[in-house]
Each structure stands twice: as structure tokens, then as C-alpha cells.
Design a protein that fits this description.
Layout lengths: L2 E5 L2 E3 L5 E8 L8 E6 L5 E7 L5 E3 L7 E6 L4 E6 L8 E7 L11 E5 L2
Parallel strand pairs: 2-10
Antiparallel strand pairs: 1-3, 3-8, 4-5, 4-9, 5-6, 7-8, 9-10
Length: 115
Amino acid sequence: EVQLVESGGGLVQPGGSLRLSCVASGFTFSDSYMSWVRQAPGAELEWIARINRNGLTNVAASVRDRFTISRDNAKNTVYLQLNSLKDEDTAMYYCSKGMSGMGDRGAGTMVTVSS
């Protein structure tokens, strides 16, 4: 059974940073693409970033200069570093198994950007 547990969200002021983590189990993490997606209040799910098993990344153009995805296969963990946060980054952030972000997801971690 695929299990994904996100953490690291919280309340942060505009311009601040957060590092989100997602611990995976129930599948061969080191062989898997992993993605991050987010859903803002009242909005649709938005794909943010993906990373392949070798660390090759793709990041959405809208956040490419501020967000970084990485992974540690030894820890079965994928990360999302969020820098220079803006109000519009407020959302529930989910990690997902696979390239599209539409696969199995965890319960999410909430990021609130507010002064």
C-alpha cells in the first residue's frame, strides 16, 4: 500500500521560506518519479514539480525561480524548498507518486503565507 506523509508546512510571512518533506513507503521509492502539487482554497489542483529517480527535475515555470525539488533515496523522502514565498502560494501541498501528480497522494501539508 502506497503511503505518503507530508510535513513542514505552516504560517510564514511573505518573503519567507519553508522546506516541505514527504516520506514514502509501500513501493520502491528509488525507482519512482515523485511530484509535488498544490491546491489553493477554491482553486483546482496545480502541478508544481517532479523529480525522477536520478534527480532530474522539472519545475513549473510559475515557481521555477523560487521552488526546488529534491530527493534522498536512502531516506525515501522527497523535498520541496519554497523560497521568497508570496500570498498566492497559500495552499495545501501534496506529494504524489508518479510524473503527473495525479497519482497516489498524501494528506498534504498546509502552507499559509500571510503578514
